[in-house]
TrEMBL record:
Keywords: FAD, Flavoprotein, Oxidoreductase. The keyword Transferase does not apply. Residues 5-429 form the FAD-dependent oxidoreductase 2 FAD-binding domain. Its cofactor is FAD. InterPro entries: CobZ, FAD-dep_OxRdtase_2_FAD-bd, FAD-oxidoreductase_2, FAD/NAD-bd_sf, Succ_DH/fumarate_Rdtase_cat_sf. It comes from the Bacteria. It comes from Lichenifustis flavocetrariae. This is FAD-dependent tricarballylate dehydrogenase TcuA. Pfam families: FAD_binding_2 (PF00890). GO terms for molecular function: oxidoreductase activity. Signal peptide: none annotated. SUPFAM superfamilies: FAD/NAD(P)-binding domain, Succinate dehydrogenase/fumarate reductase flavoprotein, catalytic domain. The gene is tcuA.
Length: 459
């Protein structure tokens, strides 16, 4: 049996920010990562950017993104389903993250333009999520943080809101700590848990990130009296290429071309407005939309005029010289797809196409409409991507307060337990998603959790 000041369970962005912050407060910190060193970091490995409030343009951001605008964006994507106190606290604290993260060795790249429309709001990691992780690990190790890999926690001992110890399954080693930071993700890779809420449809879900996020730590905490937060059916779910692997395909399997075409189900019927809003604010609705379609499959259909307007997937689009032949390749009814495309084309009203703004290219008299970026699909060859729901992380989690301290079922703050990242994201994300906000939640609350856990241990 060993004892430390702060035990951090998890190995991604939130966990490392917590470990670094705790170490900088003088705590002796141990990080337990379930994977090996190569696969460390969970979903953070696949990320690219972080959404942070800032009051002016910088070397890496093209303009200001004030706190109130950030909050309004959050309200819009969550339909108001957020804890306003925690959300505003996170947004305010995010203003320091651009500098704090850089002080931990992470490098930012110049702002990006194009269809992402994130150059003003989101800072991008130079080298992506893996480079960001490597920098955080290097800093943590330099500060003396102990990292243990292949150390999956299978049991936690909690007594009346006080963490006592964690047990590592492979060795049955029991580790005591004065404070706990849980940063071990959600339960998105636990298909059986997903099926409790989604039924057999969950068998057709693809998990964009790690296969290690089985929700073990979340379940242990909830079973030991921590108050839960969030809707178990809500998650960050996007449309990804149906040819992607079951686990860990990452961001290169995501498809960003919905706004440039139409999306049909296996019956070749449209089912939602593809041009509802700027893509970073609406892309994460498409996983749930596809999940509600027959056999959880859909197809993004577009023509040659749109082929170079978006970042391609890892897999090439399916191509055919006519809509009928494209339907045959997709296994769809050719007449049905031709009818859907023809009805769409007839409803398109001409305007000035501009993918960077909410333009005036729309349909008229069509249900569902396409509100923006509607252009006739008529220039061959024609293309399609098959898509399935890609689950990034789930929103059921542990309730926390502004200090990232867990709250018990009886509303008492836990004695020495803190949480950060996906495992508590449901406090901020009741539903929906905006690009980069997962990393914001992880970094901001990770830093807070580590700092407060260290102070708690010291006292």
């Amino acid at each position: 049996m060993s004892a430390v000041d702060v035990l951090v369970i998890g190995g991604g962005n939130a966990a490392l920010c917590a470990a670094i912050a705790a170490s900088r407060e003088g705590a002796r910190v141990l990080v337990l990562e379930a994977s090996n060193a190569f696969w460390r970091g969970g979903n953070t490995r696949h990320t690219r950017n972080m959404r942070c409030a800032h009051d002016q343009a910088t070397e890496i951001l093209t303009g200001p993104y004030f706190e109130d605008e950030f909050f309004e964006d959050l309200l819009r994507v969550t339909n108001g389903q957020t804890d306003e106190t925690l959300a505003r606290h996170m947004i305010h604290e995010s203003k320091e993250m651009l500098t704090w993260i850089a002080e931990q060795g992470v490098r930012w790249q110049p702002s990006l333009g194009g269809t992402l429309s994130l150059g003003r709001t989101n800072a991008f990691f130079l080298g992506g999520g893996r480079a960001m992780l490597n920098a955080l690990y290097a800093t943590a190790e330099r500060l003396g943080v102990e990292i243990r890999y292949e150390a999956e926690v299978t049991d936690i001992e909690i007594d009346d809101g006080m963490f006592l110890s964690a047990t590592i399954g492979s060795t049955a080693e029991r580790i005591e700590a004065r404070s706990l930071v849980a940063a071990a993700g959600g339960f998105e890779s636990n298909i059986e848990w997903l099926k409790r809420y989604w039924g057999d449809a969950a068998d057709n879900f693809i998990i964009r990130g790690t296969s290690n996020n089985k929700g073990t730590i979340l379940k242990l905490l909830l079973d030991n009296g921590v108050q839960e937060v969030g809707d178990p059916t809500q998650c960050h779910a996007v449309a990804i290429d149906a040819r992607a692997p079951k686990y860990d395909g990452g961001i290169i399997t995501r498809l960003d071309c919905v706004v440039f075409g139409i999306v049909v189900n296996k019956n070749a019927q449209r089912f939602y407005d593809e041009g509802e809003d700027i893509w970073p604010k609406r892309y994460a609705i498409w996983g749930r939309l596809v999940a509600a379609q027959p056999d959880q499959i859909a197809y993004i259909v577009f023509d040659a005029s749109s082929l170079t307007l978006f970042m391609p997937s890892l897999y090439p689009p399916i191509q055919a010289p006519t809509i009928g032949e494209l339907a045959q390749k997709l296994g769809l009814d050719p007449a049905a797809l031709q009818g859907t495309v023809s009805a769409f084309n007839e409803a398109v009203r001409p305007g000035t196409f501009d993918y960077k703004i909410l333009d005036d290219c729309r349909t008229d008299g069509l249900t569902p409409p396409k509100s923006h970026w509607a252009r006739r699909i008529e220039t061959g060859p024609f293309y399609a991507y098959p898509v399935r729901p890609g689950i990034t992380f789930t929103y059921l989690g542990t309730r926390v307060n502004k200090d990232a301290r867990m709250v018990m079922a009886d509303a008492r703050p836990a004695a020495n337990m803190f949480a950060a990242g996906e495992i508590m994201a449901g406090n901020v994300l009741g539903e929906g998603y905006a690009a980069g906000i997962g990393m914001t939640i992880g970094a901001v609350f990770g830093r807070i959790a580590g700092r407060e856990a260290a102070r708690n241990a010291r006292n």
